[in-house]
Amino acid sequence: MCGRYASSRSPSDLVAEFEIEAGNVRESVEELGENYNVAPTNQVMAVVERKDREQPDTTVRKLTTVKWGLVPSWAKDTSIGSRLINARMETVAEKPAFKKAFQSRRCILPADGYYEWYTAEEKLNGKPVKQPYFIHPPDGSVLAMAGLYEIWRDKSVADPEQDAAWLWTCTVLTTSATDDLGRIHDRMPLLVERERYDAWLDPLSSDPDDLLELLVPAAPGRLEAYAVSKAVSSVKNNGPHLLDPLPPDAEDPQDTPTTLF
């Protein structure tokens, strides 16, 4: 985890949730649209806070788009991004790929919820059956996943003033899963609670101990999980139907479901 999630919130909903001024929404956000099967290398929405160029002691909060799969500023090319979709909380402050971003380039990746696959003991055609689950806040609130972002200079574009000269990428921070979700998978995304949005996003704050204290696993009962169709396993499939709960005794068109709870 985290390797797939759903993101269908409108920009206006996120502007309200994260207290972003309407003028600070990047045009690419409006073009992104709903995505019920977000996968690595996709463009995703991110809430970031940047120093104001004219007033360095103040910051501006923005809603923008970034590519999922972090490319460190020192990388020779972008291929490393596919291996850096997640950053472990336990080592994020020391790992060279994440250390600088953790200090000053933190973000929130808003989601409806995320998918995880439970590996069952039973087998199909000699292979273990993997049942996808959708994990989300039962009250329908935004899942604010803690993330990091980086800005990589594409030197093949000569003019640094062009948007194409800079690639914005991100990674999702993860931690050990809580007991109720650990039965599905042993890792889960770290969440940023509403009262901690400001502190987490503040680029002027860089103390690693203080930052780590802001991140918490979901409290028991904060998230719920239910089985969904195996159709979500293919990135070719998309749409709100991927979030439909799979009845315990129903037959999944993709396969026969495994019941965990």
Return the structural class.
Answer: mainly beta
Q: Give the DSSP E fraction (strand runs of 2 or more residues).
A: 25-35%
The end-to-end distance, rounded to whole angstroms, is 20 Å
- What's the mean pLDDT score? 90
The low-confidence parts are: 256-261
Tell me the quaternary state.
single chain
| Strands, count | 12
Query: What gyration radius follows from the Cα positions, in whole Å?
Result: 19 Å
The helix count comes to: 6
Topology, element by element:
Elements: E1 5-7, H1 11-17, H2 27-32, E2 35-38, E3 43-51, E4 59-68, E5 86-88, H3 99-104, E6 106-111, E7 113-124, E8 127-136, E9 143-153, E10 166-176, H4 179-182, E11 187-189, H5 197-201, H6 208-213, E12 224-227
Short description:
Helix content is 13%, strand content 33%. The longest helix has 7 residues.
Short descriptors:
261 residues, 5-stranded antiparallel sheet, 5-stranded mixed beta barrel, 33% strand, disordered C terminus
Structure description:
The strands form 2 sheets. A 5-stranded antiparallel sheet has the order 2-1-7-8-12, with no helix packed on it. Strands 3-4-10-9-6 form a 5-stranded mixed β-barrel. The model is unreliable at 256-261 (pLDDT under 50). By secondary structure, the chain is mostly beta strands. The two termini are 20 Å apart. It has helices at residues 11-17, 27-32, 99-104, 179-182, 197-201, 208-213, and strands at residues 5-7, 35-38, 43-51, 59-68, 86-88, 106-111, 113-124, 127-136, 143-153, 166-176, 187-189, 224-227. A hairpin with a 7-residue loop joins strand 3 and strand 4. InterPro entries: SRAP (IPR003738), SRAP-like (IPR036590). It is an enzyme of class 3 (hydrolase).
